[in-house]
TrEMBL record:
Family affiliation: Belongs to the SIMIBI class G3E GTPase family. ArgK/MeaB subfamily.
Protein name from the UniProt record: Methylmalonyl Co-A mutase-associated GTPase MeaB
Domain AAA+ ATPase positions: 85-253
NCBIfam families for the chain: lao, PRK09435.1
Keywords annotated in UniProt: Hydrolase
EC number: 3.6.5.-
Superkingdom assignment: Bacteria
Molecular functions (GO terms): hydrolase activity
InterPro entries: AAA+_ATPase (IPR003593), GTPase_ArgK (IPR005129), P-loop_NTPase (IPR027417)
Length: 358
């Protein structure tokens, strides 16, 4: 390479002089620009069924950053008038029962009928398992690729209450983005079934046929919550067991008092793997919607659910505000000691603590 001659006439390459040259300041500015989210544009995109926008909005809902939450609230408010138009289905069952396989087959069935479906998950343990959906997304291979399906792993690392709130808000966003069917999956850790039940229109319990003691090992209350029980893996040698299990579950269901919805919970058998009995489950859900829409139970249930979440949220916030007050923390310790020393009772101590002025 020819050496450049030093000359007084040589002109150096120009540098544009910007007012801010400090690299760290530039970094901050760039970051800020990136995080400036135009909520109005995002809402418009969501209403135009833009999946990327939907994902971004859900990320905002899940964020712990107060600024993001503020934006999330604005977006949700704007989306609310367009929400409420889907069928919300909760799906639960023990690990290995075939939830992911079922959602894949069921989801494909729905998209083949021109429906758009969104799949969300509630899994309070997801920080460990990386989310029930994400963990076995491979089982939803086809659905993941389907343009009419949207799959979102559960929000992680939070309390069940926190996850529930985020999921409720994600439902609203998905509905605004025009999804007709929203599936909420849960593995049923702790109270998560009750949580899912309180945010869906239809609750489906997936079961396996066992050795005749079908009702053993089922959590109390689960059967009561179910609008349908589907005995999965009803294929091959398992088919006859599944049919027997169906009889037994039917008998058990009749022991429960009739529901206010006029809906008698149904028991059905299916094979998620072989795609058998899946269409029947969809028909059954449509029946349910028809009946409960007619007798207005559908709307009444949603109103009940809204009331439940309102009260629940207030309770949680009051509780955390109370317990996080420094003077309460100190007084609580003192009262605990007094209880230990037999100088007061838990009830008297509670009265005292609750009467503390800020
Ligand atoms: N034979 C049979 N196997 C199934 C069926 N559904 C799921 N499986 C298998 O059961 C295993 C667990 O399924 P998966 O969908 O991951 O269950 P999940 O843990 O409830 O999500 C996998 O090996 C599936 O291939 C079915 O209908 N019939
Ligand atoms: Mg799974």
């Amino acid at each position: 390479m020819a050496k450049e001659k030093k000359s007084a006439l040589k002109e150096n390459k120009g540098v544009s002089i910007s007012e801010i040259t400090d690299p760290s300041t530039i970094k901050v500015l760039k970051k800020k620009r990136r995080s400036e989210i135009n909520t109005e544009a995002l809402v418009t995109s969501i209403l135009n069924k833009d999946i990327t926008a939907l994902s971004r909005a859900i990320t905002l809902v899940e964020s712990k950053n107060p600024k993001h939450l503020e934006k999330a609230n604005t977006i949700i408010k704007a989306c609310l008038p367009y929400a409420n138009k889907s069928i919300r289905i909760g799906i639960t069952g023990v690990p290995g029962v075939g939830k992911s396989t079922f959602i894949e087959t069921f989801g494909k069935h729905l998209t083949s009928k021109g429906k758009r479906i969104a799949v969300l998950a509630i899994d309070p343990s997801s920080s460990l398992t990386k989310g029930s959906i994400l963990g076995d997304k491979t089982r939803m291979d086809d659905l993941v690729k389907d343009d009419n399906a949207f799959i979102r792993p559960s929000a992680s690392g939070d309390s069940l209450g926190g996850v529930a709130r985020k999921t409720r808000e994600a439902i609203i966003l998905c509905e605004a983005a025009g999804f007709d069917v929203i599936i909420i999956e849960t593995v049923g850790v702790g109270q998560s079934e009750t949580t899912v039940h309180s945010m869906v229109d239809f609750f489906l319990l997936l079961k396996l046929a066992g050795a005749g003691d079908e009702l053993q090992g089922i959590k109390r209350g689960i059967i009561e919550m179910a609008d349908a029980i589907a005995i999965n893996k009803a294929d091959g040698d398992n088919l006859k067991h599944a049919k027997l299990a169906k009889v037994e579950f039917n008998r058990a269901l009749h022991l429960y008092p009739e529901k206010s919805s006029d809906w008698q919970p149904k028991v059905t058998i299916c094979s998620a793997l072989k795609n058998e009995g899946i269409d029947a489950i969809w028909e059954l859900i449509l029946d349910y919607i028809a009946i409960t829409s007619k007798n207005n139970h559908f709307n009444a249930k949603r109103n009940e659910q809204n009331k439940f979440w309102l009260i629940q949220t207030i309770e949680e916030q009051l509780k955390s505000t109370f317990f996080n007050r420094p003077e309460v923390k100190t007084a609580l310790e003192n009262q605990l000691q007094l209880i230990k020393d037999n100088k007061t009772t838990p009830f008297a101590a509670a009265d005292y603590l609750l009467s503390l002025e800020i």
